[in-house]
Amino acid sequence: MGSYPSSEEGLEALVQRGNQGSHWNGPHLNANAIPNDPWGHAYVYSADARSKR
Predict the structure, then answer these.
(1) What distances in angstroms separate CA 52 from CA 10, 17, 36, one per listed residue?
(2) Are 25 and 3 in contact (CB under 8 A)?
(3) What SS3 string covers the chain?
(4) Does residue 53 have a pLDDT over 60?
(5) For the whole model, what pTM was predicted?
(6) Are 29 and 35 spatial neighbours (Cβ–Cβ below 8 Å)?
(7) Structural domain boundaries in the chain
(8) Distance, CA of 51 to CA of 39 (rounded, Å)
(9) pLDDT in tens, 4-44
(10) pLDDT at 41
(11) The pLDDT of residue 27
(12) How many Å apart are CA 42 and CA 12, to the nearest integer?
């Protein structure tokens, strides 16, 4: 879609069609679910524009 998901969309945008409409080309994860990190915790996602690097 040309951009990262917003904080509101979160990582769920990788597995479920949101407001992207017909341009969505997912799911983008094989399990159709957000996996936990290697330590067993949920990932924290924030699309804060101030933290662009």
Answers:
(1) 17, 25, 24
(2) no
(3) CCCCCCCCCHHHHHCCCCCCHHHCCCCCCCCCCCCCCCCCCCCCCCCCHHHCC
(4) no
(5) 0.57
(6) yes
(7) 1-53
(8) 24
(9) 788 888 888 777 776 656 666 666 677 777 889 999 999 99
(10) 95
(11) 64
(12) 12
